Amino acid sequence: MYQFISPIKIYYGEESLNNLDKILLDLKVQHVFLLTDPILKSLGVITPILERLSKLNIKVEISIDTEPEPSLLVGNVILEKVKESEAEIVIGIGGGSTLDLAKAASVLADNEGVIEDYLNLTGERKLIGKGLPKILIPTTAGTGSEVTDIAVFSLEDTKDVIAHDYLLADYTIIDPVLTYTLPPKVTAASGIDALTHAIEAYTSANASPLTDILALDAIGRITKHIRTAVRDSSDKEAREQMAFGSLLAGMSFYNAGVAGVHGLAYPLGGLFKIPHGESNAVLLAYVYDYIWPSCLVKIKEIAEAFQLPTDGKTNNEIAITVVKSLRDLVKDVGLPTTIKEYKINEENIDRLTTNALKQTRLLQRSPEILNSRAIKGIYRNAYEGKLTNHK
Prior knowledge:
391 residues, alpha/beta, Rossmann fold, Dehydroquinate synthase-like, alpha domain, 6-stranded parallel sheet, two-stranded antiparallel sheet, 15 helices
């Protein structure tokens, strides 16, 4: 038996932002808390939304107190602002960090305590109230935060999450137009993030036939269009396909879960503040270089989604080709392919390994057991830029 969960309503496609008016009118909203980031505000990306709210005579309180890889401090500041605003609904517009903050604040506004009380690894409280309704509007094509129930926070040397069905969006609006102004590096990092979601969901121990269909479709779309989206921001088809691929990947990984790549990426973000998408990108090939013998059939299907030649090749040879293609893709879109490029020293590998082992929620979904020895070996290969091609 399988189950599949998604937000109540998803609006997707160019000009889908037009549905915002109907949502707010149907809910009879008079007071909105809008969370975004300073760059989007300065670029005027949220101006059309503010104009819509003004025409509807809806009171708006805006917060731009977001940050990439958000800390507990920032999360609690926003939580307090949402509580003080007495708004009826929270709208989050931005990248994954902004959406995560909007999710957490909207739910905790109806619960006692602060962010750290509800963290997966160390929190001791359980959510009781569902919180305020929330509308999530992504401006990147990658994180999948708009269709998941997870909010990620950076700690001193790693990351932790709040995860609960209450964090799911009541409404998600995915309008590719909002991604047209993304700079190449953000397009690359968020795109590889989405690809990682799809690949890890596809090979997850919790995968199902439905998540497999979504993940494989996402893999094909993203690998076909990401290079164009990075190199030519004006290519609308590439942008639209990346947005749709990200949506499919998000729905797949929310239900099947991600695994080793994310488990090892969290300490990179926590210790060295490497953006989440880049943390995944730099580790993606090295994790699969280690685990491919445990998911050979699915790796072959990934190769077909990549449109790689498979005729006359053994499954092992196909897997090695997929791993090399992953690293080539990361390089092609302009992202680092070794952790050494982030000024990480070799002596940091032990600490990274210790912190990665704490991510049991993620590691347990890996098709291959990732113990201390395996994780240390993956980090070392990622440091040296070495693909072993075999176990």
